[in-house]
Amino acid sequence: MSVLSRPTPNRLSRAFTLVELLVVIAIIGVLIALLLPAVQAAREAARRNTCKNNLKQIGLAAINYESTHRTFPSGGWGFYWVGDPDWGVGERQPGGWVFGIAPYLEEAAVAQVGKGIAGGIRGDTPKKQAIGQQMAHPVSVFLCPSRRGAAAYPTGDPPVQEPYNATAPPLYAKSDYAANGGGDRIAVGRGPDARCYERYPNCDGLGAGWTWNKAHYERWDGIVGYRRGAKLRQITDGSSKTMLAGEKFLSSDMYTNGLHVGDDNSMYEGFDWDTVRWTGTQQPDDPEDQPNKMPQPDQPGGNKKDLHPESFGSPHAAVNAVYCDGSVHSINFDVDPEAWNALGRRNGADTGRERFSQDPL
Predict the structure, then answer these.
(1) Where is the composition biased (Basic and acidic residues) (predicted)?
(2) Successive 10-residue mean pLDDT values, the chain, 361 residues
């Protein structure tokens, strides 16, 4: 006799209901919303560390420059001039401090562009055109990753006039870092006229008659100045208490268009607020001097001519700076004005002030 097995009842497969599916999607959305700020914060922390490392490299390069030449790099002649490898260092070099320290950042090739080329810069002699190639050569160590990548960018609208001693490229290499010009702003400008290549050192505008005179020199208390760099022995406040360079302020909606007046030229140019900033208050004998040079957080708005072109600043929660001993610090935007001013002055006898920086490297 065969045994008949009992039929097994069919098992119905159970799926998510619409309500359950919506609940799951909502939970995933909440988790993503919670994770995104953490991811963004982690990315910003990484960018901030990269920025501080950039300043560390810049500081070490400037210190190595000082060890070689017994002075920190000079600021150059003005924004109508760029570096010339045939014109040495110091007062004779028309290019700025970025050009000066390039060889110490493994960028010796850019500092040798145009070397040995004959010819002047006046209409009756050919320009040393190859020098202009340096103006478009970006170096990642001079660019903050929270702002922009290593590329050449526009020079403004309309473009800034090309320098006297080079044929300018259509795009310029920029720097997100500026050297410490001191507490007082020394006048900036285009520098001596084009004939200076033939007449140096007897050039109109190079000496006492235009941007620089004895009173300016005596007042200058920074590290990088017009045609000069400070000597280590001149930093009487101490190298660990004096800023060498820091992040410069830049309008957050002008990172890549070249419209900010403090970011419309090449980083290899001579003395200008594109590559030099200050920490002090307004000078009574200089009506064009800005009254507020406190560090500023990057912000949109304003026009290209009046939005903190003389101030340090940052896209981060605090401004990063490298000191003359090579250490890197983050300084809060609400730093005491007197302490901030003291940080920019190398010889103010103000080393006893309370420390206000944090996170040294």
Answers:
(1) 347-361
(2) 54 68 84 74 82 96 96 93 90 94 92 76 59 90 94 82 84 96 81 83 64 62 92 93 96 91 92 92 55 85 71 94 96 91 85 41 43
